[in-house]
Amino acid sequence: MKKKVSRNIVLYALVVAACLLMAGCSTNKTDAALESPRNTSEKKIPVTIYMNGPVKGSLDPVLVPVQREIVLKGEDSDKLRVKAAVEELIKGVTEKEKEAGLTTSLPKEVKVLNVGIKRPYVTVDFSSELQVMGGAMLISSFLEQIKYTLTEFDGIAGVILQVNGEQVGTEANPFTGDGFQFNALVRPAGGSWAKSISPSRALDNFIVSIGNGDIKEMWLWMGPGVREQYKYPDMTNISELSEGLGAWRNYKVVSENINGDKAVVIIKGDQKLEGMTEKDAQYTAYMVKENGQWKWDPKSK
């Protein structure tokens, strides 16, 4: 009788041990299943960057558009795309591009610390190595490379540069020892590029030209109706425009309706009025096409 009980105890112990072992295995599987899966997805995206071309009979830098393919791992955003494009400029030219005479003006030591986008502006924060660049010609070509590369992106018309979080290129803080001042870098109006962009992107450029206080540039983004109102560039009411349309930041294009040579663009976002930011404000811009280029013209409605 005692032997039978002993065998039962042994069998019971073996069953319990087996159950515990199975439970342990089951627990491990559950823990593994609860772990967040690693995002190993990669996305290859084509971008256009601008390198310095070979100088031919002129000391002025000649820009050459170059197609590159950037790889984004996991997350995809406009900020990451912009950062990757600038880093391609820092990497420099390929062997094939070098043989063709292309160069880059960005120092290889410089790093991109941060990127911020608030339409129609992008702010790129660089490490301190950028501020010690020397030579007016080198600096000019760098500014052109950055300006043309980043304004390829939709919704970016003005490029603001920072070094260690502080804006450079202003009157209070010129860029490098050569004293460059530009506030926001912007592509000039006119030419094939200006004719190729949409009404909303033309509006972006007009807003940036107001922010820069550049009357000549503003005039080139104005349609015939509003030019007739002001008569001459010097008679343009800059204060009124600066406090109105020029105060828009961090907005989205709600709609863009094109009807022949006229278009209506509705934007919604932040507008500063008398020092106060009005959130989710809305503005309707009337645009007209003149000589193939979209221009701001409230008189065309």
Record keyword descriptors for this entry.
four-stranded antiparallel β-sheet; 10 strands; four-stranded mixed β-sheet; alpha+beta; 301 residues; Nuclear Transport Factor 2, Chain: A; GerMN domain-containing protein; disordered N terminus; 29% strand; single chain
What would you note in describing this structure?
This is GerMN domain-containing protein. With 301 residues, this protein is an alpha+beta fold. The chain has a domain at 198-300: NTF2-like, domain 1 (Nuclear Transport Factor 2, Chain: A, Roll), CATH 3.10.450. It has helices at 2-34, 78-91, 95-99, 136-150, 191-196, 199-211, 215-220, 224-230, 238-243, and strands at 42-52, 63-73, 112-118, 121-126, 158-163, 166-167, 248-259, 262-273, 276-290, 293-296. The protein has a four-stranded mixed beta sheet. Strands 7-8-9-10 form a four-stranded antiparallel beta sheet. The chain has a two-stranded antiparallel sheet with strand order 1-2. A hairpin with a 2-residue loop joins β7 (248-259) and β8 (262-273). The model is unreliable at 1-39 (pLDDT under 50).
Q: Note poorly predicted spans.
A: 1-39
Largest sheet: 4 strands, mixed
Approximate helicity band: 25-40%
Q: How much β-strand is present in the residues?
A: 25-35%
Structural class: alpha+beta
Strand arrangement, largest sheet? 3-4-5-6
Q: How is the CATH topology of one domain named?
A: Nuclear Transport Factor 2, Chain: A
Determine Rg (CA atoms, Å): 29 Å
Determine the N-to-C terminus distance: 106 Å
CATH class of one domain: Alpha Beta
CATH H level, superfamily name of one domain: NTF2-like, domain 1
The count of strands amounts to 10
Arithmetic mean of pLDDT: 85
